Amino acid sequence: MKVVDLFAGCGGLSYGFKLAGFETLLALERDQWASETYQANHPYVNIITGDITQISDPQSLVEFPVDGVIGGPPCQGYSCRVIETLKTLEIVFLWTLLDLSMTFGLISL
Questions:
Q1: pLDDT in tens, 26-72
Q2: Buried b (16+ CB within 10 A) or exposed e, 2-17
Q3: Domain layout of the chain by residue ranges
């Protein structure tokens, strides 16, 4: 099965899914250093460095059939506005899942 990894970080979730037999086709990460680390860990995955809230049309990023979307948004302990931040990230994640018509979604907080 093929997945998209949102809030990808250095690629730990993608790695776990790879071990389980999944293929990550696209990753999205806001932080430049984390994005570079992800690319080093997963050289065959297309990674986009940018803010997910600024993407108006997620379908424009995906040019292939994808079965699921996975993601690990920032931990509450590192957020100054915990409730507001999590609500925003959860909404974006669910919106992306629905907009891309995925079979499944996994969010790890």
A1: 999 989 999 999 999 999 999 999 887 777 776 777 777 788 888 87
A2: ebbbbbbbbbebbeeb
A3: 2-107
- Residue 93 contacts residue 28 (beta carbons within 8 Å): no
Kindly name the residue from 40, 75, 94, 109 that is annotated as catalytic. Answer: 75
- Residue 104 token pair: 């499944």
Our answer to whether residue 75 is catalytic in this structure is yes
Prediction pTM value = 0.77
28-33: long-range contacts, CB 8 A cutoff, minimum separation 24: 28/4, 28/52, 28/55, 28/61
pLDDT tens string 2-34: 998 988 999 999 999 999 999 999 999 989 999
2-107 topology per CATH: Rossmann fold (3.40.50)
Handedness of CA 18, 22, 24, 30 (dihedral sign): negative
H or E element in which residue 87 lies: helix 82-99
